[in-house]
Amino acid sequence: MRFTSCILLLQALLLANTAQAQSNNSTNNGTNALTQCQQSIVQQLTNIFENSVKYFPWDYCENIGDGRGYTCGIVGFTTGTHDALQVISAYAAQLNSSTPNPFGPYMSRLIQLNQSTIDGSTSGLDGFCNVWSTTARSDQLFRTVQVDMVNQLYYNPAMAYAARNGLQFELSKGQMYDAAIQHGTALSEADSLPSMIDRTTASFKSGPNSVPGGLSEVDWLTAFMNVRIETLQNPAYKPSQAGWSQSIYRVKSYQYALSQGSVHFNDSLTALDNDGNTVSIGCDLTLWNYVGPPLPIQTPKKGILIGVLIGVGVLVLLIVTFCIIKRRLVAEWVSELSYRSKRAISRMSR
Q: What pLDDT, on a 0 to 100 scale, did the predictor assign at position 320?
């Protein structure tokens, strides 16, 4: 048992080190990154998409039924796609030797779940969300690790892809980042950011550096967002389809900003929220340290609520109609039975 535990711990640490190496490679390849103000604006917009609030939901943890296990933390790390395990492994590696790892009981199961590309099972993770939420609200180190892993796994790679494709607009870089958060950056996955970039570039029959070569960045960004919508509506990984097809607002928000000519921004950006309403987002350098209230209970959107009410009304109407018809049929049957009984008695009395 001790030997097995050591092997599992080594695997977890290798995952964390791999993430660090990916981050270093992204940085060393040369990233035309956003300023901290611009990054805070882009991050707040992604936070709205993810959880309908601008601040980081450090303690969030829930199974949203997208085939990726538990979704948790500031950008929706998941237990079935490696990144939640990488966050936990990096956190465990920085704990003092005298401090127990609160996620210790889950490590072997998390590693098992992450042997394949995607595994949506939550079996063996009872109480995991409670541990995540408690640790996130009580331990600054765990919150810091979440930010570090976002940069390593998503922000730096997204900026590297933007630089590699010659993208100069802050809006383009923001779209690369939000796509990295939702779709991931795995080269082997058809729904990932690099795969969507490849499909976009192929649609113009040009090389990977097509933008500097003369192709309009507006045209390329427009095409990329169309490719992303197609991916959200019809992903290769089908368990994501139900949820992803309802999240096209993430792209429409950027399409709106593009239509307003907001390709460059420094201190603020006007985009669309999840309900299609305009929202103004300003620079907030306190974003990475602010611990907000727990997320509010999500209520159904107005359109969904109306649909549910209509559905219930139709069901009630059908039940009432059935009962009325049934009552009439029973009454007719009783009447007919009574008539036949009377005739039978009449004949017997003759």
A: 58
Residue 278, beta-bridge partner list: 272
Q: 286 by DSSP, 3-state: which?
A: coil
Instruction: Give me the mean pLDDT over the 34-58 stretch.
Output: 96
- Active-site annotation holds for 50: yes
Identify which of 53, 74, 52 has the alpha carbon closest to the alpha carbon of residue 132: 74
Catalytic residue among 50, 170, 178, 189: 50
What confidence category does residue 116 fall into, taking pLDDT thresholds of 50, 70 and 90? Answer: confident
Eight-class DSSP state of 62: E
The one catalytic residue in 59, 66, 170, 189 is 66
- Measured in Å, how far apart are the chain's first and last C-alpha atoms? 95
In this structure, are residues 95 and 57 in contact, taking their beta carbons and an 8 Å threshold?
no
Amino acid at 115: Q
Burial of 304 (0-12, 13-18, 19+ CB in 10 A): exposed
Measured CA distances, 29 to 154, 162, 179, 237 (Å) = 15, 11, 20, 30
Pair type for strands 268-272 and 278-282: antiparallel
